[in-house]
Amino acid sequence: MNYQKEVVILLLGLYLIFLCRGASGDQISGKGIINLAHRQTKWTPLVQTSANLSEVTSIRSFFEFRTFDPEGAVFYGDTKDGEDWFVLSLRDGIPEMQIGKADILVSIKGGRKLNDGAWHLLELRNEGKFVVLEVNNQVELVVGLHSKLAEDELTGNIRLALGGMLVDKQKLFHPFEPEMDACIRGGHWLNLSTTWDTDSTWEPRPCFSEIKKGNYFPGTGVATFNSSDLPGLKTEEAGITVEIFGSWTGTTLSLQSTGFEYVLGELEGNKDVKEVQLGLKEGSERGIPPHEPAALTFTILKHSLVVNSKSELETESLDFFSMWKKGMLLTFGGVPGDSEVAKSKQYLRGCLDKILVQGQVIDLDRALYKHSAVSSHSCPTEAMNELT
């Protein structure tokens, strides 16, 4: 990719960010493009706004929505400081509405799958005692509820939020994972024109014009799992396999445990495998040719580590199966922490189309830690062009 193209993409990203941000830097326009993915906290909404109900003449909101993510929080609203609340989320890619009102908790799921990477027009509105969800101008869900304990006339403030909830997650009738790698644009929220307050940890990022499925690492940050939370050993002969598919450059993964560290980095020319002793730590570094679509299989055996059927590290002094079961740190995209080793390694840059551990697809939203710059379900096609 040449320098001029890099400048154009950078300016486009800054322009999209400017559209979304308010003059103070901590507010955005609800009509702009909002990327829900990049945040530090799970349940805290990315953006929120509030208004006096006396200003609201229409309980109707609509917006365009795009994602590959199968689960997460999309849109939230409440009154009475959260006594009555509503949340729209995805589960298995299908819309789900949950409502809490007086003594009633309701959960309903249905309609078409929305996590196909295409833009969909969503509309939510109240019709008397019913809440209606439309997708692309077709009614998908209708929820009716009535409580003798609820007041018919609404007074006070109404609060709206995107990408999270303003009430405790314990109130949910059907719990879900809130992280949502998605973009929203063209929002019309009730009849309000107020700006939205942003989460203090949020760093606004552009929504790319074209996306594909995958885990996107922009050259910043890592995703770390505790191995005890991942699929375990089936047979000693087969070991534990980690399979990675995609196009990338930089550090692929690393393993850390007490007194041990292993880094699977980038190939440096045609150099032979090198082993590096790091104090009490043992390790070897090996990589794959960058820039080309690749499939990598990393196998953990009882006393050895194998990359694409070639043994990279053998040691009788360590039992990797026991270490995996007790809990090692398996990190994709680099080395966690601020150690000299971490600082010396290049972060992964590119798209991991799929990550499998013991044959099971791994969702980065379930990571012990994921940097806010890493996207868990979508890759920009622009990034693919850079690496080819």
Automatic annotation (TrEMBL):
One Pfam family from the record: Laminin_G_1
Q: Name one GO cellular component term.
A: extracellular region
Q: Does the keyword Disulfide bond apply?
A: yes
PROSITE patterns per record: LAM_G_DOMAIN
Q: Highest taxon of the source?
A: Eukaryota
Q: Which residues form a coiled coil?
A: none
Is the keyword Signal in the record? yes
Describe the subunit structure. Answer: Homodimer.
Instruction: Identify the PANTHER family for this entry.
Output: LAMININ G-LIKE DOMAIN-CONTAINING PROTEIN, SEX HORMONE-BINDING GLOBULIN
Q: What is this protein called?
A: Sex hormone-binding globulin
